[in-house]
Amino acid sequence: MKYIERTYRLLHRQEDLAFFQVLIKETDLDIGVLRSKLTPELVAGTRRQVMSVRSQLEQYIACDVTFVKTLKPYKPVPGAPEIVKLMADAATRAGIGPMSAVAGTIAQYVGGYLVKRSREVIVENGGDIYIRSERMRKIGVFAGPSPFTNRLALEIQPHQTPLGVCTSSGTVGHSLSLGRADAVVVLAPSAALADAVATAAGNLVQEEDDLQAAVDFALGIKSIIGAVAIKNDKLAAAGNIKLAPM
Question: Superkingdom of the source (predicted)?
């Protein structure tokens, strides 16, 4: 399958890192590591890691179809793989179905593999990011038609990482959202949790007046560091989060 550049990926690209892509079925990762660490062996190992994680998830889903279909919290069957349990736990804390956490969970798994090989790591999976860094990073916010797109960024400090920075949108992309937010961005130590909570908070936004309720909901969940919700030219933010111009 041919790789197609996603333009929003420019918002998390860092000049001091080297980036490569891993594309396997629905999983489309953009990965940044220290330039000195980018080798064919690292790329091959990362690809094997993605295939392993996907295989575990696919084999489980084949035996438990409800896991992939339900929009409500769900307890996996005994003996489920760790990735399945992590997704289910994150989604239960957010009050929604486990597939809401799939992109963030895969980014987190791959990031965990890479941090053993590079001090600086960014893994982006469909707008959901795992980051580990020893320097301040700016991550741009993509909010579709909102005027904040390409103008607003999050400042991520080293002490906050490893960190999940995950985005849900009701106006951009193919992921399921029951809301109409241009973007809801959630920060948490777990990218799986950040992904699930971003989806749940995004579901609450139908109008601009819902933005504050969405970020309040996110901050009401233990371990969430911060949240930003955007619709049109309106924005709400809460928590330990620093906004900056791009």
Answer: Bacteria
